[in-house]
Write a structure and sequence with these properties.
- The complex is a heterodimer of chains A (about 240) and B (about 120).
- Chain A is built from eight helices and seven strands.
- In chain A, the strands form two sheets. Chain A has a five-stranded mixed beta sheet, with helices on one face.
- The termini of chain B are far apart.
- Chain B is built from four helices and no strands.
- Classes of the chains: A alpha+beta (about 240), B mainly alpha (about 120).
- Chains A and B meet through helix 6 and helix 8 of A and helix 1 of B.
């Protein structure tokens, strides 16, 4: 079958403004948007620029807007889209464009670092010097938010983040949630204090864009609500 | 699984968030009763000065209308604050926004409160 991709192109050395270019080529229904982009780059226009790495939905490199929705190009099969019409491919919103489908993720990762997204526990190790154990129920408590791959699809779908990128955004909150509700971690209060601030969790308007955008199907809005509740009640159950 | 508890300092944003929830519940009750009486049972075309005089002859409806004004307007102004804060990024700008909205809120609430409690039915 034939498919037409309408791609938002931008070369900062040549273009004053981004513009759309169309590419029509043969493809299979089981091809993914990433496969089509690779074909365009290999056979039609070698200057087309996009991020990709694992191509299997794990690394989070290829988040982009496909027909107006944030998705991973490597997980979006053509057969799930209406190929009788043009398929629009654009960079994710809310971050500065670098070139074509690549955006500058610095702000995204700066916000991520603000919530201390790493395990903190200065207490002595257990007597056997090995693992800090937890029950399956304690592990289950934060299982959903361990699935984040930091692709940025959620944060760059958030209207609050579009308007003000000092808001930490759903991705940072998801990664804070992962440690706040971990029974082995000891820095929940510090993280909650950061998230209770002006750029924190109360900027969320529960638009649910993040939950719809997440390629890992994390219940992000629920996780954000749980962090809000933890700030208000101090309870980590 | 034991419940872990932590002490989190409740900042201004947490207070404002809780205010929106609590005032929202109150407004839901106050506004619907208000709409039911004024718009459905009485009807807006029947509302004139003599109706207001009758309604405000006792203290109950005056207090009721004051609570509706106080909670609805503070709820609305905090909503405006949150929306505008998305587009005002400097700390000074946000501080100015907060003060402007607070003063505007206070003026309307004070004027409304005076109107509600100082109202005296026209003679005759």
């Amino acid at each position: 079958m034939q498919v037409t991709l309408k791609i938002l192109r931008y070369n900062p050395e040549k273009d004053a403004q981004p513009h759309y270019e169309r590419y029509t080529l043969d493809a299979e229904p089981t091809d993914r948007i990433l496969d089509v982009l690779e074909k365009i780059k290999a056979y039609e226009d070698g200057t087309l620029t996009f991020r990709r790495s694992c191509a299997h939905g794990v690394c989070g490199s290829c988040a982009m807007r496909i027909n107006g929705r944030n998705r991973l190009a490597c997980k979006t099969l053509l057969q799930t889209l209406d190929t009788s019409k043009e398929i629009t491919v654009e960079p994710i919103l809310g971050l500065p464009r670098v070139k074509d489908l690549i955006v500058d993720m610095t702000t995204f990762f700066d916000n991520y670092k603000k919530v201390m997204p790493y395990f903190i526990n200065d207490e002595p190790l257990p007597e056997d010097g090995r693992e800090r154990l937890q029950s399956p129920e304690e592990r289950e408590r934060f299982d959903d938010t361990t699935k984040c791959i930091l692709c940025g699809a959620c944060t760059t779908a958030c209207p609050t983040f579009w308007a003000d990128n000092s808001y930490v955004g759903p991705s940072a909150i998801v990664n804070a949630h992962r440690f706040i509700f971990d029974s082995r971690d000891r820095a929940a209060a510090e993280r909650l204090k950061i998230l209770a601030g002006e750029s924190g969790v109360f900027r969320c308007r529960t638009a649910f864009n993040c939950t719809e955008a997440c390629p890992r199907e994390i219940q992000i809005t629920k996780a954000i609500a749980e962090v809000k509740r933890a700030i208000i009640t101090g309870r980590l159950d | 699984m034991t419940t872990k508890r932590v002490e989190v300092p409740q900042g201004w944003e947490a207070f404002a968030w809780k205010w929106m929830r609590y005032s929202g519940v109150l407004i839901f009750i106050l506004a619907w009763i208000h709409v039911l009486i004024q718009d459905i049972l009485v009807g807006v075309y029947q509302i004139d000065t003599s109706y207001v005089a009758t309604r405000w002859s006792g203290g109950f409806w005056r207090v009721y209308d004051f609570l509706l004004l106080f909670f609805a307007f503070s709820h609305g102004m905090n909503g405006v604050r949150q929306v505008l804060a998305d587009y005002i990024h400097s700390a000074g700008g946000r501080r100015a926004l907060n003060w402007i909205l607070l003063i505007l809120w206070a003026i309307v609430v004070v004027v409304g409160t005076i109107a509600i409690f100082a109202f005296t039915p026209p003679a005759g």
